[in-house]
Amino acid sequence: MTINEIQDELIDDFSFYQDWMEKYELIIQMGKELPLIDEANKQDQFIIKGCQSKVWLFPELKDGKLFFTADSDAVITKGLVSLMVKVLSGHSPKEIADADLYFIDQIGLKEHLSPTRANGLLSMVKQMKLYGLALAAKV
Amino acid sequence: MDTLDIKTIREDFPILKREVNGKPLVYLDNGATTQKPKAVIDAIINYYTDMNSNVHRGVHYLSQISTDAFEITRRKVQEFINAKHDYEIIITKGTTDSINLVASCYGQEFISNGDEIIISAMEHHSNIVPWQMICEAKGAILKVIPMTEHGELDMETYKSFLNPKTKIVAVNYVSNALGTINPVKEIIDLAHAQNIPVLIDAAQAVQHIKIDVQALDVDFLVFSGHKMYGPTGVGVLYGKEYWLNKMPPYQGGGDMIKDVTFEKTTYNELPFKFEAGTPNIEAGIALNAAIDYINRLGLDNIKKYEDDLLQYATEKLQEIKGLRIIGTAKEKSSVISFVVEGTHPYDIGVLLDKMGIAVRTGHHCAQPVMEQFHIPGTVRASLAVYNTKEEIDALVAGVNRAVAMLV
Asked: Does A73 touch chain B (CB under 8 A)?
């Protein structure tokens, strides 16, 4: 599936839920599906620091595709991270660098990308795209 | 007024009627900023509708009435904290600005290489960093009074810190992260016994506890307007005349000068020496309305009501399985910080928000405090006079619901 097909599928999944708490149940559930970063890779250079919750993000290039493993110390952040990884991981670095992540807005999670949320998610999206940009030159 | 009618008080705060995420707003982030009563909002509107003009400058009518209104606030503040003179009240941008002013100007004049500055382990970053900066500039040493596991200052260590090299002590009255009320009178007396001045950060105290600067004999007292039902962008530095006269000006500019030539500028008298530039006039004027509002309710009534509510909240929250209150000092004011086993404060904060409940989560600009308790942060509910037991019940139900989802 392309990045946009995955995004559309997520928008579909979330459209079943009107209630905020149900949406967050789903986000927490998604967190459990996140491909976890190896404990050995939980090093400072792979930490994306928000003011409140921590995110670890590890990039790996395999056969021209960029894969991410990650983790967070907060459950909701982990769920949000999982959504990003689900959308972006396994695509070419150029596709990742160029991706337009419209799904966040459409499923009503835009607030989490605001700098005041301090959850590190905005920095994480930037970092994922930076990895894409940097590695696009190598592929 | 003997007992407060909270229902009527809530009517004074228009924002409390609104909904958040489809739920009635439960505002428990008063330590960050309080909501504003209509009297304060009206004062701001009235200023721009009726008297907008620069202060301390014009001979024209509007400038005179805005200057008068601004100066009424200064005298209102003087009365409110029982300062000896109105010119000991410096109007600043807020607590942070006030502390930076003292650290910079007192530091410039009185602190030199090898001197010591005492702060405490429960300070807000704004009562840490300005002192670190002056320490770095002057080669002085920062000494930190430790605290116990209950979040109380270790007074024996404090006593042992005081020595002829100590040039100033700066501690908070009430901890924003833990709610601890510190024994400020004792802290001041001990320092004064060795002729050391003391700055008290009263940002979390002045809206809850009656303060008398002469009775305390405090040298500097600082607080913000926006945490005491007033507008943002205005705060107070009270300083004893003796110290303020000895300190050099903070910033240069309009209002703080007497005569300016390119060879030599002479400075204005107190308080204007420390008030360079056009102040936040509307906030300064509206602060008067905020103090009137507090005075009308009576700080003693406010304190009694908030203490009861704090006790109720403490009891109810403690019933939640796995919940641990951070900061269990004997003397506390209006703040409950807590963590719940197996959850991150951020997660609880996000879910509470979706239920219309506003709390603060994180380190509350007091990272060293969190470090001492080995936690990434806390959930903090901080109370104001308009909060109710029903709102505490909503918080407890909300935390229970969040925990059920998270654990």
From this structure: yes
Chain B residue numbers with beta carbons less than 8 Å from the beta carbon of A21 are: 351, 354-355, 401, 405
**A21 vs B: CB within 8 A:** yes
For B6-30+298-406, give the CATH class: alpha beta
Residue B365: active-site member: yes
**CATH architecture assignment, domain A3-136:** Alpha-Beta Complex (3.90)
Structural domain boundaries in chain B: 6-30+298-406, 41-295
β pairing state of B166-172 and B198-201: parallel
Residue B32 has pLDDT above 80, yes or no: yes
- A2 phi and psi angles, rounded to 5 deg: -80, 165
Distance CA B254, CA B208 (A): 35
DSSP B51: I
Return the CATH fold of B41-295: Aspartate Aminotransferase; domain 2 (3.40.640)
- Higher pLDDT: B352 or A139? It is B352
Q: Which residues contact B383 (CB under 8 A, 6 or more apart)?
A: B28, B30, B306, B309, B310, B313, B334, B335
The ipTM estimated for the assembled molecules is: 0.86
